[in-house]
TrEMBL record:
Superkingdom as given in the UniProt entry: Bacteria
Xref: SUPFAM superfamilies: Flavoproteins
Native source species: Staphylococcus arlettae
Oligomeric and partner information: Homotetramer.
The protein, known as: FMN-dependent NADPH-azoreductase
Keyword Flavoprotein assigned: yes
């Protein structure tokens, strides 16, 4: 399976800290190809309605990686009670069916618990519209769960481990179902 981890903000460090932990966990538990994409390190063009294949450089690299992924983990900070504009731009660059047959796990970082429903109310509808199979649960990480760019809350570590494990398990199960359905046809 092809796993892409998308750190969905062009600023900050907490999302990347959690994404690095998730990458370490996945690397230790699976032999699948894992690619970490940090939007802080990319120069992404604004969406102007073109096909994603008509872009160049980092924009084409990121969109192609997402289109070829079987599993996508999206991590993002919450800004102004919403997802970051840089993450929304990525979605705008992709076609409507970009996440068809892909399993998506997610986590959000925030300064307070007041915004714990942002992934549910803002990100999941976008992913559903783009035909993703989103994991029912996500991990919400507050600022108090970090200290000096490390996660200090054992419950968050446990929940990130569970997210990684259940998302990979769901994707493998889904791939098996698709293969079983495809094998029913003679051609």
């Amino acid at each position: 399976m092809n796993i892409v981890l998308l750190s969905g903000s062009s600023v900050g460090s907490k999302t990347r800290t959690a994404m690095d932990y998730l990458q370490q966990q996945l690397t230790a538990t699976t032999n699948d190809h894992i690619e970490l994409i940090d939007l802080r390190e990319k120069s992404i063009e604004f969406s102007d309605g073109r096909n994603y294949l008509d872009y160049h450089g980092d924009t084409l690299e990121v969109t192609t990686a997402l289109m070829q992924a079987d599993i996508i983990f999206i991590g993002f900070p919450i800004f102004q009670a919403s997802i970051p504009g840089s993450l929304k731009n990525i979605f705008d660059l992709l076609p409507v069916n970009a996440f068809k047959d892909k399993v998506v796990g997610m986590f959000a970082t925030a300064g307070s618990a007041k915004h714990y429903l942002i992934p549910e109310l803002q990100l999941k509808p976008i992913l559903d519209y783009m035909k993703a199979h989103t994991m029912q649960t996500y991990v919400f990480i507050e600022e108090r769960d970090f200290h000096q760019q490390t996660i200090v809350n054992d419950d968050i570590i446990f929940r990130l481990n569970a997210l990684a494990q259940s998302t990979v398990r769901m994707a493998k199960t889904y791939q098996q179902i698709l293969q079983d359905e495809e094998s029913q046809y003679d051609f």
